[in-house]
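note to self: dont lose this again. the chain is below, predicted strucutre after it. 182 aa total, dont forget to put it in the shared folder this time
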Amino acid sequence: MSQKKINLIIATFLILFAAILKVVTYPNSFNPIIAISLFSGAIMTDKKMAFLLPLLAMLLSDVLLEVLHIAPGFYGMGQIGNYAALLFVTVLGFFMKKISILNVLGFSIASSLLFFLLSNTNVYLFDNFHTYQKSFSGWITCLAAGVPFLKNRIPTDLFFSVLLFGSYALAFRSQVNKKIIA
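---
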């Protein structure tokens, strides 16, 4: 089997796995989508695919949430900001030059914090319910309201980052510091 087919199978599996896990663990959000964003940015040589992988996982999960009537899968302008936040996490992955335990842990925590900051700022900017004052203190209040989600997000992202990068390192031991997934 060609490397391109293997890569397509891996990408398809990651998209399906992430989307299904997001749906079945809703609203607790135990899913690998942020870790996949970081992983694809760090590992994939094809930058279009690196961006596409987490976006497709998020889109499929949103479609499933909507179709299965579990939660609103599509909820407006704020959702676009969350998709953009995933793209920024993917860009963060571009800066991981070497796969090591410290890099995976550090970049995983950084991606959790980056997503938290961007997604909560997004909630603040597109606050349809006028929950937060349009001021610096309103933004800080919005960030503070998201801290419980961050407390759950960091261990989840660490778990899935270690799983993804660890599996990759085991599968490609001799080439672990090269980007080989197209």
